[in-house]
Amino acid sequence: EAGVAQSPRYKIIEKRQSVAFWCNPISGHATLYWYQQILGQGPKLLIQFQNNGVVDDSQLPKDRFSAERLKGVDSTLKIQPAKLEDSAVYLCASSLEVSYSSYNEQFFGPGTRLTVL
Amino acid sequence: AQKITQTQPGMFVQEKEAVTLDCTYDTSDPSYGLFWYKQPSSGEMIFLIYQGSYDQQNATEGRYSLNFQKARKSANLVISASQLGDSAMYFCAMSFKETSGSRLTFGEGTQLTVNP
């Protein structure tokens, strides 16, 4: 089965510019996650979707970040305007369903490495 | 609040030897899951092993085993017979239930280097 797809793999922009990332989850996976991973740190959840609805966006900087998942399949994450501290790898992950047990295996894409100059 | 701690920023091991990567966690929730992920330099996160808080036996997956000590709140990853391809960043993560479903909280990671 095909894995989680993300594009672009790399992006370099100047501060105050806007950027968008795209993610296509594994077919049939209802839950989609966007993570931010700053160099040397573990991934931090930005937003979680269940189908096309937002489940958790408590750590999303909503003044500059936005995300959508139209039709409950692929998703885009946008930053506008970008700041230097947004330089990071943005990981997309998906899981089969919203798990109400403690087991929640997430499958990750290759990530998009963003550099803000 | 849930928290994962990995106290080893870097570890070195000789090829074919075993290595233990430490992970401690903090939660008041009795139901939780513990995961280990591997992140090579290419960037993708690769699932290695899972341990549920109610599981009686330690999880094993091939050369990976999880040393789960519930009372001490530790979930160390043991890699046996290390290979050069095991060189990567390793993350411990915990999942727990919330009314909106479950989410993962990651530790800061341990960089493992396998020497020939």
Structural write-up:
- The complex is a heterodimer of chains A (117) and B (116).
- Chain A has 117 residues and is mainly beta.
- Chain A contains no helices and 11 strands.
- In chain A, a hairpin with a 6-residue loop joins strand 4 and strand 5.
- The mean pLDDT of chain A is 91.
- Chain B is mainly beta and 116 residues long.
- Chain B is built from no helices and 12 strands.
- In chain B, the strands form 3 sheets. In chain B, strands 2, 5, 6, 10, 11 and 12 form a 6-stranded mixed sheet that branches. A 4-stranded antiparallel sheet of chain B has the order 3-9-8-7, with no helix packed on it. Chain B has a two-stranded antiparallel ribbon with strand order 1-4.
- In chain B, strand 5 and strand 6 form a beta hairpin.
- Chain B starts with a strand and ends with a strand.
- At the A-B interface, strand 5, strand 9 and strand 10 of A face strand 5, strand 6, strand 10 and strand 11 of B.
Features:
heterodimer; A: about 120 residues; mainly beta; seven-stranded mixed β-sheet; four-stranded antiparallel β-sheet; 11 strands; globular; B: about 120 residues; six-stranded mixed β-sheet; about 0% helix
Topology of this structure?
The complex is a heterodimer of chains A (117) and B (116).
Chain A: E1 5-7, E2 10-13, E3 19-24, E4 31-37, E5 44-50, E6 53-56, E7 65-68, E8 75-79, E9 88-95, E10 107-108, E11 112-116
Chain B: E1 3-5, E2 10-14, E3 19-21, E4 24-26, E5 32-39, E6 46-52, E7 60-61, E8 64-69, E9 74-79, E10 88-98, E11 101-106, E12 110-115
Parallel strand pairs in B: 2-12
Antiparallel strand pairs in B: 1-4, 3-9, 5-6, 5-10, 7-8, 8-9, 10-11, 10-12
The Cα radius of gyration of chain A reads: 14 Å
Measured as a percent range, the helix fraction of chain A is: under 10%
Q: Could you list the spans of chain A in which at least 5 consecutive residues all have pLDDT below 50? A: none
Dominant shape of chain A: globular
Number of helices of chain B: 0
**Low-pLDDT residue intervals, each spanning 5 or more residues of chain B:** none
The arrangement of helices and strands of chain B along the chain is: EEEEEEEEEEEE
Largest interface: A-B, 29 and 30 residues
Percent in strands of chain B: over 45%
The description of the largest β-sheet of chain A is: 7 strands, mixed
SS summary, helix count of chain A: 0
Class computed from helices, strands and strand pairing of chain A: mainly beta
For the sheet with most strands of chain B, the description reads: 6 strands, mixed
Termini distance of chain B? Answer: 41 Å
Number-wise, the strands of chain B total 12
**Helix share, percent of chain B:** under 10%
The proportion of strand residues of chain A reads over 45%
Distance between the amino and carboxyl termini of chain A: 37 Å
Task: Quote the average pLDDT of chain A.
Answer: 91
**Total beta strand runs of chain A:** 11
